[in-house]
Amino acid sequence: MSSVFPLRFRRLSESSLVFANEAGQFFKSNDRFLERLDNEKLTKSDQEFLFDHAMASRRAGDINEMSYLHRLASRLRPPTDLSYVILVPTLRCDLACSYCQVSRAAINAKGFDWSDETLLNVKSYLSKSVSKRIQVEFQGGEPTLRLDLMSQIMDFCREHFEESRFIICTNLSVVNEAFVDIISAEDVFVSSSLDGSPDLHRKQRTNTKSQTDEFFKNFSRVGELIGDRLSALPTLDSKNLPAPSDFLDTFDHYNMRSVFLRPVVYHGFARKRHPTSKDHQSVWQKFYEACIYEMIARNIGETSDFYEEYYLTLILKRLLRPGEDNHIDLRSPNWLGYDHQLIDYDGRIYPSDEARMMARTGQVDLSIGDVFAGLDEEKRGALQGRAFNALDPWCSQCPYQAACGSDPIDDLARHGRADVPKPATAYCQKHLHIFDFAMKLIYSEDKKNQHSLALWLGLPSPIFLGDVLQ
Amino acid sequence: MKHTIEDAQIIQDVVDRLGVIYPDNLVEYDDKFISIRNVEAVDVPNVRQVALDQLIRSRYDANSANLRNMLYTRLLR
Protein backbone atom coordinates (compact mmCIF):
# COMPACT_ATOMS: atom_id res chain seq x y z
CA MET A 1 0.00 0.00 0.00
CA SER A 2 1.39 3.43 -0.84
CA SER A 3 -0.64 5.68 1.45
CA VAL A 4 -3.56 6.08 3.80
CA PHE A 5 -5.34 9.38 3.13
CA PRO A 6 -4.65 11.43 6.27
CA LEU A 7 -6.99 10.53 9.11
CA ARG A 8 -8.14 12.50 12.13
CA PHE A 9 -9.56 10.92 15.26
CA ARG A 10 -11.69 11.73 18.28
CA ARG A 11 -12.59 9.67 21.31
CA LEU A 12 -16.29 8.72 21.44
CA SER A 13 -15.86 6.83 24.71
CA GLU A 14 -13.05 5.35 26.80
CA SER A 15 -12.53 2.52 24.34
CA SER A 16 -13.91 3.67 20.99
CA LEU A 17 -12.74 6.34 18.59
CA VAL A 18 -14.09 7.83 15.38
CA PHE A 19 -11.63 8.23 12.52
CA ALA A 20 -12.32 10.40 9.49
CA ASN A 21 -10.52 11.90 6.55
CA GLU A 22 -10.82 15.32 4.96
CA ALA A 23 -13.19 14.00 2.30
CA GLY A 24 -15.69 13.13 5.05
CA GLN A 25 -15.37 9.33 5.10
CA PHE A 26 -15.44 7.94 8.63
CA PHE A 27 -15.38 4.73 10.66
CA LYS A 28 -15.24 3.64 14.28
CA SER A 29 -12.32 1.73 15.75
CA ASN A 30 -10.27 1.40 18.92
CA ASP A 31 -6.95 2.25 20.60
CA ARG A 32 -5.22 -0.78 19.07
CA PHE A 33 -5.84 0.58 15.59
CA LEU A 34 -4.74 4.07 16.68
CA GLU A 35 -1.47 2.61 17.94
CA ARG A 36 -0.90 0.72 14.69
CA LEU A 37 -1.66 3.85 12.66
CA ASP A 38 0.64 5.99 14.79
CA ASN A 39 3.48 3.46 14.59
CA GLU A 40 2.95 2.87 10.86
CA LYS A 41 2.35 -0.82 11.55
CA LEU A 42 -1.02 -1.42 9.95
CA THR A 43 -2.01 -5.08 9.60
CA LYS A 44 -2.99 -6.65 6.32
CA SER A 45 -6.60 -6.55 7.44
CA ASP A 46 -6.34 -2.81 8.33
CA GLN A 47 -4.95 -2.14 4.88
CA GLU A 48 -7.67 -4.15 3.17
CA PHE A 49 -10.39 -2.33 5.15
CA LEU A 50 -8.95 1.07 4.26
CA PHE A 51 -8.45 0.19 0.62
CA ASP A 52 -11.89 -1.41 0.26
CA HIS A 53 -13.46 1.72 1.75
CA ALA A 54 -11.43 3.94 -0.62
CA MET A 55 -9.54 5.55 2.28
CA ALA A 56 -6.12 4.48 0.97
CA SER A 57 -4.44 4.16 -2.38
CA ARG A 58 -1.96 1.61 -3.68
CA ARG A 59 -0.32 4.02 -6.10
CA ALA A 60 -0.55 7.69 -7.05
CA GLY A 61 -3.46 8.42 -9.36
CA ASP A 62 -5.28 5.10 -8.83
CA ILE A 63 -9.07 4.84 -8.63
CA ASN A 64 -9.11 5.31 -4.85
CA GLU A 65 -7.07 8.49 -5.04
CA MET A 66 -9.31 9.83 -7.82
CA SER A 67 -12.34 8.93 -5.71
CA TYR A 68 -10.85 10.66 -2.66
CA LEU A 69 -10.07 13.83 -4.62
CA HIS A 70 -13.57 13.82 -6.10
CA ARG A 71 -15.10 13.56 -2.62
CA LEU A 72 -12.79 16.28 -1.35
CA ALA A 73 -13.75 18.56 -4.23
CA SER A 74 -17.45 17.93 -3.68
CA ARG A 75 -17.02 19.27 -0.13
CA LEU A 76 -15.58 22.56 -1.44
CA ARG A 77 -18.33 24.79 -2.77
CA PRO A 78 -17.19 27.77 -4.86
CA PRO A 79 -18.78 31.19 -4.29
CA THR A 80 -22.04 31.56 -6.20
CA ASP A 81 -24.36 34.39 -7.27
CA LEU A 82 -26.78 36.04 -4.88
CA SER A 83 -29.86 33.83 -4.42
CA TYR A 84 -30.96 34.35 -0.79
CA VAL A 85 -31.77 37.86 0.40
CA ILE A 86 -33.00 38.96 3.80
CA LEU A 87 -34.88 42.23 3.46
CA VAL A 88 -35.66 44.54 6.37
CA PRO A 89 -38.29 47.02 5.12
CA THR A 90 -38.70 48.37 8.65
CA LEU A 91 -36.88 48.08 11.93
CA ARG A 92 -39.99 49.03 13.89
CA CYS A 93 -41.72 46.37 15.94
CA ASP A 94 -44.87 46.14 18.07
CA LEU A 95 -43.27 43.78 20.62
CA ALA A 96 -40.21 44.15 22.88
CA CYS A 97 -38.88 40.61 23.40
CA SER A 98 -36.06 40.52 25.94
CA TYR A 99 -33.83 38.43 23.71
CA CYS A 100 -34.52 40.28 20.47
CA GLN A 101 -31.33 39.89 18.49
CA VAL A 102 -31.69 43.08 16.48
CA SER A 103 -32.39 46.02 18.77
CA ARG A 104 -35.69 46.86 17.10
CA ALA A 105 -37.12 50.40 16.96
CA ALA A 106 -40.31 51.45 18.75
CA ILE A 107 -43.58 51.11 16.86
CA ASN A 108 -44.03 54.85 16.31
CA ALA A 109 -40.36 55.73 15.70
CA LYS A 110 -39.52 57.75 12.60
CA GLY A 111 -36.73 57.05 10.10
CA PHE A 112 -36.63 53.27 10.46
CA ASP A 113 -38.51 52.30 7.26
CA TRP A 114 -37.35 52.12 3.67
CA SER A 115 -37.86 55.43 1.88
CA ASP A 116 -39.19 55.49 -1.70
CA GLU A 117 -35.62 56.01 -2.86
CA THR A 118 -34.37 53.00 -0.88
CA LEU A 119 -37.12 50.78 -2.30
CA LEU A 120 -36.21 51.85 -5.81
CA ASN A 121 -32.53 51.09 -5.20
CA VAL A 122 -33.28 47.72 -3.57
CA LYS A 123 -35.12 46.67 -6.74
CA SER A 124 -32.31 47.96 -8.93
CA TYR A 125 -29.68 46.14 -6.82
CA LEU A 126 -31.61 42.87 -6.95
CA SER A 127 -32.09 43.06 -10.70
CA LYS A 128 -28.30 43.46 -11.14
CA SER A 129 -27.19 40.89 -8.56
CA VAL A 130 -29.63 37.99 -8.83
CA SER A 131 -29.52 35.78 -11.92
CA LYS A 132 -32.50 33.40 -12.08
CA ARG A 133 -33.82 32.27 -8.72
CA ILE A 134 -34.40 34.23 -5.56
CA GLN A 135 -35.53 33.43 -2.07
CA VAL A 136 -36.52 36.49 -0.07
CA GLU A 137 -36.84 36.44 3.69
CA PHE A 138 -38.64 39.46 5.14
CA GLN A 139 -37.25 40.27 8.55
CA GLY A 140 -37.59 43.16 10.93
CA GLY A 141 -38.47 44.69 13.22
CA GLU A 142 -41.88 43.42 12.28
CA PRO A 143 -42.09 43.39 8.47
CA THR A 144 -45.89 43.12 8.39
CA LEU A 145 -46.01 46.74 9.56
CA ARG A 146 -45.09 47.53 5.93
CA LEU A 147 -47.25 45.16 3.88
CA ASP A 148 -47.13 47.73 1.07
CA LEU A 149 -43.34 47.45 0.72
CA MET A 150 -43.43 43.65 0.89
CA SER A 151 -46.10 43.51 -1.82
CA GLN A 152 -44.07 45.73 -4.13
CA ILE A 153 -40.96 43.56 -3.71
CA MET A 154 -42.97 40.39 -4.33
CA ASP A 155 -44.49 41.79 -7.52
CA PHE A 156 -41.05 42.91 -8.68
CA CYS A 157 -39.41 39.51 -8.06
CA ARG A 158 -42.22 37.54 -9.69
CA GLU A 159 -41.86 39.71 -12.76
CA HIS A 160 -38.04 39.71 -12.98
CA PHE A 161 -36.88 36.24 -11.91
CA GLU A 162 -37.65 32.74 -13.15
CA GLU A 163 -38.44 31.49 -9.67
CA SER A 164 -39.26 33.40 -6.51
CA ARG A 165 -40.08 32.29 -3.01
CA PHE A 166 -40.89 34.49 -0.03
CA ILE A 167 -40.70 33.88 3.70
CA ILE A 168 -42.33 36.37 6.02
CA CYS A 169 -40.82 36.25 9.51
CA THR A 170 -43.52 37.70 11.72
CA ASN A 171 -44.61 37.72 15.35
CA LEU A 172 -48.25 37.29 14.15
CA SER A 173 -49.49 39.85 16.64
CA VAL A 174 -51.77 41.26 13.93
CA VAL A 175 -53.41 39.28 11.14
CA ASN A 176 -55.58 41.51 8.97
CA GLU A 177 -57.23 40.90 5.60
CA ALA A 178 -54.36 42.50 3.64
CA PHE A 179 -51.93 40.05 5.27
CA VAL A 180 -54.26 37.12 4.58
CA ASP A 181 -54.39 38.19 0.94
CA ILE A 182 -50.57 38.23 0.67
CA ILE A 183 -50.05 34.82 2.25
CA SER A 184 -52.71 33.16 0.09
CA ALA A 185 -50.14 32.96 -2.75
CA GLU A 186 -48.46 29.54 -2.94
CA ASP A 187 -44.95 31.05 -3.13
CA VAL A 188 -45.35 32.79 0.24
CA PHE A 189 -44.34 31.08 3.48
CA VAL A 190 -44.78 32.32 7.02
CA SER A 191 -42.26 31.76 9.79
CA SER A 192 -43.18 32.73 13.32
CA SER A 193 -41.92 32.17 16.84
CA LEU A 194 -43.45 29.62 19.18
CA ASP A 195 -41.53 29.13 22.39
CA GLY A 196 -43.71 26.35 23.80
CA SER A 197 -46.78 26.43 25.99
CA PRO A 198 -48.87 29.67 26.15
CA ASP A 199 -47.49 30.35 29.62
CA LEU A 200 -43.87 30.06 28.50
CA HIS A 201 -44.54 32.04 25.34
CA ARG A 202 -46.09 34.85 27.40
CA LYS A 203 -43.18 34.95 29.86
CA GLN A 204 -40.57 35.15 27.11
CA ARG A 205 -42.31 37.11 24.44
CA THR A 206 -45.85 38.50 24.55
CA ASN A 207 -45.94 39.65 28.22
CA THR A 208 -49.72 40.08 28.60
CA LYS A 209 -52.49 37.48 28.52
CA SER A 210 -54.41 39.38 25.85
CA GLN A 211 -51.38 39.58 23.52
CA THR A 212 -50.65 35.90 24.13
CA ASP A 213 -54.24 34.89 23.38
CA GLU A 214 -54.17 37.02 20.24
CA PHE A 215 -50.97 35.37 19.05
CA PHE A 216 -52.28 31.81 19.53
CA LYS A 217 -55.56 32.74 17.83
CA ASN A 218 -53.66 34.20 14.87
CA PHE A 219 -51.24 31.29 14.76
CA SER A 220 -54.14 28.80 14.54
CA ARG A 221 -55.89 30.87 11.90
CA VAL A 222 -52.80 31.16 9.67
CA GLY A 223 -52.15 27.42 10.12
CA GLU A 224 -55.68 26.66 8.92
CA LEU A 225 -55.24 29.00 5.94
CA ILE A 226 -51.83 27.91 4.63
CA GLY A 227 -51.11 24.52 6.26
CA ASP A 228 -47.49 23.47 6.08
CA ARG A 229 -46.44 26.80 4.59
CA LEU A 230 -46.49 27.98 8.22
CA SER A 231 -43.47 27.10 10.35
CA ALA A 232 -42.47 28.09 13.85
CA LEU A 233 -39.13 28.50 15.57
CA PRO A 234 -38.69 28.32 19.31
CA THR A 235 -36.15 30.40 21.19
CA LEU A 236 -35.41 28.74 24.50
CA ASP A 237 -33.85 30.17 27.64
CA SER A 238 -31.51 27.62 29.22
CA LYS A 239 -32.49 28.96 32.66
CA ASN A 240 -36.15 28.25 32.02
CA LEU A 241 -36.42 25.15 29.87
CA PRO A 242 -39.72 23.27 29.49
CA ALA A 243 -40.15 19.51 29.91
CA PRO A 244 -39.36 17.92 26.52
CA SER A 245 -42.72 16.12 26.36
CA ASP A 246 -44.70 19.32 27.10
CA PHE A 247 -42.64 21.21 24.58
CA LEU A 248 -43.23 18.65 21.80
CA ASP A 249 -46.92 18.42 22.72
CA THR A 250 -47.31 22.14 21.96
CA PHE A 251 -45.76 21.76 18.51
CA ASP A 252 -47.71 18.56 17.87
CA HIS A 253 -50.93 20.41 18.70
CA TYR A 254 -50.24 22.58 15.63
CA ASN A 255 -49.19 19.55 13.57
CA MET A 256 -45.55 20.65 13.57
CA ARG A 257 -43.17 17.79 14.07
CA SER A 258 -40.00 19.22 12.55
CA VAL A 259 -38.57 21.49 15.24
CA PHE A 260 -35.40 23.59 15.22
CA LEU A 261 -34.20 23.66 18.83
CA ARG A 262 -32.43 26.96 19.46
CA PRO A 263 -31.20 28.50 22.69
CA VAL A 264 -31.11 32.26 23.17
CA VAL A 265 -28.45 33.52 20.77
CA TYR A 266 -25.76 35.79 22.15
CA HIS A 267 -26.44 38.71 19.83
CA GLY A 268 -28.20 42.07 19.90
CA PHE A 269 -30.42 42.74 22.91
CA ALA A 270 -29.81 39.20 24.18
CA ARG A 271 -26.18 40.15 24.72
CA LYS A 272 -27.26 42.77 27.26
CA ARG A 273 -30.43 41.25 28.70
CA HIS A 274 -29.32 37.59 28.91
CA PRO A 275 -25.61 37.96 29.77
CA THR A 276 -25.36 34.40 31.09
CA SER A 277 -26.87 32.88 27.93
CA LYS A 278 -23.40 31.87 26.79
CA ASP A 279 -22.66 29.95 29.98
CA HIS A 280 -25.36 27.30 29.97
CA GLN A 281 -24.00 24.84 27.45
CA SER A 282 -24.25 21.72 29.61
CA VAL A 283 -27.83 22.46 30.69
CA TRP A 284 -28.78 23.08 27.09
CA GLN A 285 -27.03 19.93 25.87
CA LYS A 286 -28.94 17.76 28.35
CA PHE A 287 -32.23 19.32 27.28
CA TYR A 288 -31.32 18.90 23.61
CA GLU A 289 -30.57 15.19 23.96
CA ALA A 290 -33.68 14.60 26.09
CA CYS A 291 -35.81 16.18 23.34
CA ILE A 292 -34.21 13.99 20.67
CA TYR A 293 -34.79 10.82 22.70
CA GLU A 294 -38.40 11.91 23.29
CA MET A 295 -38.76 12.34 19.50
CA ILE A 296 -37.21 8.91 18.89
CA ALA A 297 -39.66 7.33 21.35
CA ARG A 298 -42.60 9.04 19.63
CA ASN A 299 -41.36 7.92 16.20
CA ILE A 300 -41.79 4.21 16.98
CA GLY A 301 -44.19 2.84 14.38
CA GLU A 302 -44.26 6.07 12.37
CA THR A 303 -43.39 5.93 8.68
CA SER A 304 -44.07 9.41 7.37
CA ASP A 305 -45.43 11.91 9.89
CA PHE A 306 -42.40 11.79 12.17
CA TYR A 307 -40.64 14.07 14.66
CA GLU A 308 -37.24 15.47 13.81
CA GLU A 309 -34.88 18.16 15.00
CA TYR A 310 -33.98 20.23 11.97
CA TYR A 311 -30.32 20.87 12.81
CA LEU A 312 -29.54 17.28 13.83
CA THR A 313 -30.98 16.04 10.54
CA LEU A 314 -28.86 18.62 8.72
CA ILE A 315 -25.74 17.43 10.56
CA LEU A 316 -26.50 13.79 9.76
CA LYS A 317 -26.89 14.71 6.09
CA ARG A 318 -23.65 16.70 6.15
CA LEU A 319 -21.87 13.68 7.65
CA LEU A 320 -23.26 11.26 5.11
CA ARG A 321 -23.85 13.23 1.90
CA PRO A 322 -21.30 15.54 0.24
CA GLY A 323 -23.00 18.58 -1.27
CA GLU A 324 -25.44 19.30 1.56
CA ASP A 325 -24.11 22.83 1.92
CA ASN A 326 -26.97 25.30 1.71
CA HIS A 327 -27.13 26.24 5.38
CA ILE A 328 -25.02 29.33 6.04
CA ASP A 329 -24.12 28.23 9.58
CA LEU A 330 -22.86 24.84 8.47
CA ARG A 331 -20.70 24.92 5.40
CA SER A 332 -17.08 25.44 4.45
CA PRO A 333 -15.87 27.40 2.65
CA ASN A 334 -18.52 29.74 3.99
CA TRP A 335 -18.14 32.57 1.46
CA LEU A 336 -19.60 35.57 3.25
CA GLY A 337 -21.73 38.03 1.32
CA TYR A 338 -21.92 36.11 -1.96
CA ASP A 339 -25.04 33.94 -2.31
CA HIS A 340 -26.56 35.22 0.94
CA GLN A 341 -27.00 38.92 1.83
CA LEU A 342 -29.12 41.13 4.04
CA ILE A 343 -30.39 44.57 3.05
CA ASP A 344 -31.22 46.65 6.10
CA TYR A 345 -33.87 49.34 6.62
CA ASP A 346 -31.32 52.01 5.63
CA GLY A 347 -30.15 50.24 2.45
CA ARG A 348 -26.90 48.92 3.92
CA ILE A 349 -25.86 45.42 2.83
CA TYR A 350 -24.56 42.85 5.30
CA PRO A 351 -23.27 39.30 4.75
CA SER A 352 -25.69 37.88 7.32
CA ASP A 353 -28.34 38.75 9.88
CA GLU A 354 -25.78 38.33 12.69
CA ALA A 355 -23.48 40.87 10.99
CA ARG A 356 -26.34 43.37 11.01
CA MET A 357 -26.90 42.74 14.72
CA MET A 358 -23.27 43.51 15.48
CA ALA A 359 -23.45 46.81 13.62
CA ARG A 360 -26.70 47.71 15.36
CA THR A 361 -25.26 47.11 18.83
CA GLY A 362 -22.15 49.10 17.98
CA GLN A 363 -19.66 46.22 18.15
CA VAL A 364 -18.26 46.43 14.64
CA ASP A 365 -19.52 47.56 11.23
CA LEU A 366 -19.47 44.53 8.96
CA SER A 367 -21.53 46.10 6.18
CA ILE A 368 -20.21 45.31 2.72
CA GLY A 369 -21.80 48.20 0.85
CA ASP A 370 -25.26 49.63 0.24
CA VAL A 371 -27.93 49.53 -2.44
CA PHE A 372 -27.07 53.08 -3.54
CA ALA A 373 -23.33 52.69 -4.31
CA GLY A 374 -23.20 48.90 -4.60
CA LEU A 375 -20.90 46.33 -3.00
CA ASP A 376 -17.57 47.25 -1.46
CA GLU A 377 -15.50 44.36 -2.85
CA GLU A 378 -12.53 45.16 -0.65
CA LYS A 379 -14.59 44.88 2.55
CA ARG A 380 -16.25 41.71 1.34
CA GLY A 381 -12.88 40.22 0.46
CA ALA A 382 -11.54 41.00 3.94
CA LEU A 383 -14.28 38.85 5.48
CA GLN A 384 -13.20 35.67 3.68
CA GLY A 385 -10.00 35.07 5.69
CA ARG A 386 -11.67 32.56 7.96
CA ALA A 387 -14.24 31.17 5.57
CA PHE A 388 -12.45 27.84 5.07
CA ASN A 389 -12.26 25.63 8.16
CA ALA A 390 -9.72 23.25 6.57
CA LEU A 391 -7.12 26.00 6.99
CA ASP A 392 -7.74 26.35 10.71
CA PRO A 393 -5.07 24.60 12.82
CA TRP A 394 -7.68 23.10 15.15
CA CYS A 395 -10.31 22.12 12.57
CA SER A 396 -7.62 20.45 10.46
CA GLN A 397 -7.13 17.94 13.28
CA CYS A 398 -10.86 17.34 13.80
CA PRO A 399 -12.65 14.32 12.27
CA TYR A 400 -15.82 16.41 11.80
CA GLN A 401 -14.13 19.19 9.77
CA ALA A 402 -15.47 18.01 6.40
CA ALA A 403 -19.05 18.09 7.66
CA CYS A 404 -18.72 21.14 9.89
CA GLY A 405 -18.59 24.81 8.98
CA SER A 406 -17.13 28.15 9.80
CA ASP A 407 -18.86 31.13 11.40
CA PRO A 408 -16.33 33.93 12.00
CA ILE A 409 -19.13 36.44 12.60
CA ASP A 410 -20.42 34.40 15.54
CA ASP A 411 -16.86 34.19 16.89
CA LEU A 412 -16.55 37.97 16.57
CA ALA A 413 -19.89 38.58 18.30
CA ARG A 414 -19.15 36.32 21.23
CA HIS A 415 -15.42 36.70 21.69
CA GLY A 416 -14.62 40.07 20.13
CA ARG A 417 -12.24 38.50 17.60
CA ALA A 418 -12.30 35.89 14.85
CA ASP A 419 -9.02 34.12 15.62
CA VAL A 420 -9.95 32.55 18.95
CA PRO A 421 -8.68 28.93 19.15
CA LYS A 422 -11.63 26.85 18.02
CA PRO A 423 -12.07 24.70 21.15
CA ALA A 424 -12.69 27.94 23.08
CA THR A 425 -15.50 29.08 20.75
CA ALA A 426 -19.19 28.53 21.36
CA TYR A 427 -19.52 27.43 17.73
CA CYS A 428 -17.01 24.61 18.15
CA GLN A 429 -18.41 23.48 21.52
CA LYS A 430 -21.97 23.42 20.16
CA HIS A 431 -21.04 21.52 17.04
CA LEU A 432 -18.72 19.02 18.73
CA HIS A 433 -21.62 18.12 21.00
CA ILE A 434 -24.09 17.60 18.15
CA PHE A 435 -21.57 15.71 15.98
CA ASP A 436 -20.65 13.44 18.91
CA PHE A 437 -24.34 12.87 19.58
CA ALA A 438 -24.97 12.13 15.88
CA MET A 439 -22.12 9.58 15.95
CA LYS A 440 -23.62 7.99 19.06
CA LEU A 441 -26.90 7.54 17.19
CA ILE A 442 -25.20 6.32 13.99
CA TYR A 443 -23.31 3.64 15.94
CA SER A 444 -26.22 2.75 18.22
CA GLU A 445 -27.46 -0.83 18.01
CA ASP A 446 -30.85 0.22 19.40
CA LYS A 447 -33.49 -0.40 16.74
CA LYS A 448 -35.50 2.63 17.91
CA ASN A 449 -32.57 4.92 17.17
CA GLN A 450 -31.90 3.24 13.83
CA HIS A 451 -35.57 3.65 12.86
CA SER A 452 -35.54 7.40 13.51
CA LEU A 453 -32.20 7.80 11.72
CA ALA A 454 -33.70 6.11 8.67
CA LEU A 455 -36.76 8.40 8.80
CA TRP A 456 -34.61 11.53 9.08
CA LEU A 457 -32.41 10.50 6.17
CA GLY A 458 -35.19 9.12 3.96
CA LEU A 459 -33.75 5.60 4.03
CA PRO A 460 -35.32 2.15 4.62
CA SER A 461 -35.71 1.26 8.29
CA PRO A 462 -34.01 0.05 10.43
CA ILE A 463 -30.55 0.92 9.18
CA PHE A 464 -26.99 0.72 10.50
CA LEU A 465 -24.88 3.35 8.77
CA GLY A 466 -21.51 3.29 10.49
CA ASP A 467 -18.47 1.30 9.36
CA VAL A 468 -16.41 -0.37 12.07
CA LEU A 469 -12.78 -1.48 11.95
CA GLN A 470 -12.05 -4.01 14.72
CA MET B 1 1.13 13.58 34.42
CA LYS B 2 4.34 12.83 32.57
CA HIS B 3 5.17 11.15 29.31
CA THR B 4 8.45 10.90 27.45
CA ILE B 5 8.56 12.36 23.95
CA GLU B 6 11.20 13.56 21.57
CA ASP B 7 10.53 15.93 18.63
CA ALA B 8 10.78 19.63 19.59
CA GLN B 9 8.28 21.04 17.10
CA ILE B 10 5.70 18.42 17.90
CA ILE B 11 6.22 18.92 21.63
CA GLN B 12 5.69 22.66 21.27
CA ASP B 13 2.49 22.04 19.31
CA VAL B 14 1.22 19.66 22.00
CA VAL B 15 2.08 22.10 24.80
CA ASP B 16 0.38 24.99 22.98
CA ARG B 17 -2.77 23.00 22.36
CA LEU B 18 -2.98 21.60 25.88
CA GLY B 19 -2.66 25.19 27.12
CA VAL B 20 -5.77 26.07 25.14
CA ILE B 21 -7.66 22.96 26.22
CA TYR B 22 -6.75 23.50 29.90
CA PRO B 23 -6.52 27.30 30.27
CA ASP B 24 -6.66 27.09 34.08
CA ASN B 25 -3.72 24.69 34.38
CA LEU B 26 -0.03 25.31 33.90
CA VAL B 27 1.35 23.24 31.01
CA GLU B 28 5.15 22.92 30.88
CA TYR B 29 7.92 21.04 29.09
CA ASP B 30 11.28 20.49 30.79
CA ASP B 31 13.36 18.79 28.09
CA LYS B 32 12.02 15.38 28.95
CA PHE B 33 8.43 15.55 30.12
CA ILE B 34 5.25 17.47 29.48
CA SER B 35 3.63 18.36 32.80
CA ILE B 36 0.13 19.63 33.46
CA ARG B 37 -0.04 21.09 36.94
CA ASN B 38 -2.87 21.56 39.42
CA VAL B 39 -5.08 18.82 38.00
CA GLU B 40 -7.70 17.49 40.44
CA ALA B 41 -6.93 13.87 41.35
CA VAL B 42 -10.27 12.71 40.03
CA ASP B 43 -9.52 14.28 36.62
CA VAL B 44 -6.03 12.85 36.19
CA PRO B 45 -6.94 9.76 34.09
CA ASN B 46 -9.01 11.87 31.69
CA VAL B 47 -6.38 14.61 31.39
CA ARG B 48 -3.67 11.99 30.81
CA GLN B 49 -5.74 10.46 28.01
CA VAL B 50 -6.40 13.87 26.38
CA ALA B 51 -2.68 14.67 26.50
CA LEU B 52 -1.65 11.31 25.02
CA ASP B 53 -4.28 11.64 22.29
CA GLN B 54 -2.99 15.12 21.50
CA LEU B 55 0.57 13.86 21.27
CA ILE B 56 -0.45 11.18 18.78
CA ARG B 57 -2.63 13.66 16.89
CA SER B 58 0.15 16.25 16.56
CA ARG B 59 2.74 13.63 15.60
CA TYR B 60 0.48 12.00 13.01
CA ASP B 61 -0.51 15.42 11.67
CA ALA B 62 3.15 16.38 11.22
CA ASN B 63 3.97 13.06 9.59
CA SER B 64 1.07 13.25 7.12
CA ALA B 65 1.44 16.96 6.24
CA ASN B 66 3.38 16.26 3.05
CA LEU B 67 0.80 13.77 1.82
CA ARG B 68 -2.00 16.24 2.55
CA ASN B 69 -0.20 18.98 0.63
CA MET B 70 0.43 16.64 -2.28
CA LEU B 71 -3.24 15.62 -2.46
CA TYR B 72 -4.36 19.28 -2.47
CA THR B 73 -1.80 20.03 -5.16
CA ARG B 74 -3.25 17.26 -7.32
CA LEU B 75 -6.78 18.44 -6.62
CA LEU B 76 -6.01 22.00 -7.68
CA ARG B 77 -3.85 21.04 -10.67
Topology:
The complex is a heterodimer of chains A (470) and B (77).
Chain A: E1 3-4, E2 7-11, E3 17-21, E4 26-29, H1 31-38, H2 44-52, E5 56-57, H3 63-74, E6 82-87, H4 116-129, E7 130-138, H5 147-160, E8 163-169, H6 177-183, E9 188-193, H7 198-206, H8 209-226, E10 230-233, H9 244-253, E11 258-259, H10 268-273, H11 281-298, E12 308-309, H12 310-320, E13 340-343, E14 349-350, H13 353-360, E15 369-370, E16 374-375, H14 377-382, H15 408-415, H16 426-442, H17 447-457
Parallel strand pairs in A: 6-7, 6-13, 7-8, 8-9, 9-10, 11-12
Antiparallel strand pairs in A: 1-5, 2-3, 3-4, 13-14, 15-16
Helix pairs in contact in A: 7-8, 11-17
Chain B: H1 8-21, E1 27-29, E2 34-36, H2 44-63, H3 65-76
Antiparallel strand pairs in B: 1-2
Description:
With 470 residues, chain A is an alpha/beta fold. Chain A folds into two domains: 3-74, no CATH class; 82-360, Aldolase class I (TIM Barrel, Alpha-Beta Barrel), CATH 3.20.20.70. Helices cover 40% and strands 14% of the residues of chain A. Chain A has helices at 31-38, 44-52, 63-74, 116-129, 147-160, 177-183, 198-206, 209-226, 244-253, 268-273, 281-298, 310-320, 353-360, 377-382, 408-415, 426-442, 447-457, and strands at residues 3-4, 7-11, 17-21, 26-29, 56-57, 82-87, 130-138, 163-169, 188-193, 230-233, 258-259, 308-309, 340-343, 349-350, 369-370, 374-375. In chain A, the strands form five sheets. Chain A has a seven-stranded mixed β-sheet with strand order 10-9-8-7-6-13-14. Chain A has a three-stranded antiparallel β-sheet with strand order 2-3-4. In chain A, strands 1-5 form a two-stranded antiparallel ribbon. In chain A, a hairpin with a 5-residue loop joins strand 2 (7-11) and strand 3 (17-21). The longest helix of chain A is centred in the middle third of the chain and has 18 residues, at 209-226. Chain A is globular. In chain A, 43% of the residues are buried. Chain B has 77 residues and is mostly helical. Helices cover 60% and strands 8% of the residues of chain B. Chain B has helices at residues 8-21, 44-63, 65-76; strands at 27-29, 34-36. Chain B has a two-stranded antiparallel sheet. The longest helix of chain B is centred in the last third of the chain and has 20 residues, at 44-63. Chain B is elongated.
